[in-house]
């Protein structure tokens, strides 16, 4: 299955009321999902989960969560600096990590602006869909 077709399926899922979509072709199966009130987190390569809450000017922490199951990468490539670091100002839409699933890399993007206060997961570990990866203050 080519990446353009997967992207098209992700877009369809994001625009629909469905929470999950599975497609089997031959011996390959693709499973896309999203959490209620959120966008497709990549695969859903990297479709990152969108927060259903509007951004507010409160001092509460906001978590950036994994949109799908896969291996978390905190750097764009081996030997390169991380996408973000604790104390850094983050813009809405900024890529903070990528999740590798099915040999595809899906960006994890911040849905709101803030300051990165904590990295909650380690690079190279498997993360679950909906798992908190970062905390913004």
Question: How would you sum up this structure in a few lines?
Answer:
Keywords: Biotin, Fatty acid biosynthesis, Fatty acid metabolism, Lipid biosynthesis, Lipid metabolism. The protein has 137 residues and is mostly beta strands.
What attributes does this structure have?
137 residues, lipid metabolism, mainly beta, 35% strand, four-stranded antiparallel sheet, OB fold (Dihydrolipoamide Acetyltransferase, E2P), globular, single chain, fatty acid biosynthesis, 1 helix
Descriptive account of the structure:
The radius of gyration is 15 Å and the shape is globular. 9% of the residues lie in helices and 35% in strands. The longest helix has 13 residues, at 3-15. The protein has a single domain, classed as RNA polymerase II/Efflux pump adaptor protein, barrel-sandwich hybrid domain (OB fold (Dihydrolipoamide Acetyltransferase, E2P)). It contains one helix and ten strands; from the N terminus they run αββββββββββ. It is mainly beta. Keywords: Biotin, Fatty acid biosynthesis, Fatty acid metabolism, Lipid biosynthesis, Lipid metabolism. InterPro entries: AcCoA_biotinCC, Biotin_BS, Biotin_Carboxyl_Carrier/Decarb, Biotin_lipoyl, Single_hybrid_motif. Pathway: Lipid metabolism; fatty acid biosynthesis.
End-to-end C-alpha gap = 40 Å
In terms of quaternary structure, the protein is: single chain
Helix and strand element order: HEEEEEEEEEE
Architecture, according to CATH? Beta Barrel
Q: How many domains, as an integer? A: 1
Strand line-up in the sheet with most strands = 3-10-8-5
Uncertain residue segments: 37-59
Range of strand content = 35-45%
The assigned structural class equals: mainly beta
């Amino acid at each position: 299955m080519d990446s353009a077709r997967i992207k098209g399926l992700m877009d369809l899922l994001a625009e629909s009321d469905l929470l999950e979509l599975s497609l089997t072709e031959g011996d390959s199966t693709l499973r896309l999902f999203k959490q209620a009130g959120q966008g497709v987190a990549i695969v859903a390569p990297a479709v990152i989960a969108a927060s259903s809450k509007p951004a507010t000017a409160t001092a509460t922490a906001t978590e950036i969560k994994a949109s799908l199951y896969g291996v978390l990468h905190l750097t764009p490539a081996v030997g390169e600096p991380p996408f973000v670091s604790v104390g850094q100002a983050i813009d809405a839409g900024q890529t903070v990590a990528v999740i590798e699933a099915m040999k595809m890399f899906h960006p994890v993007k911040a849905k709101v602006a803030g300051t990165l206060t904590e990295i909650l997961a380690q690079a190279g570990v498997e993360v679950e869909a909906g798992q908190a990866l970062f905390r913004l203050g």
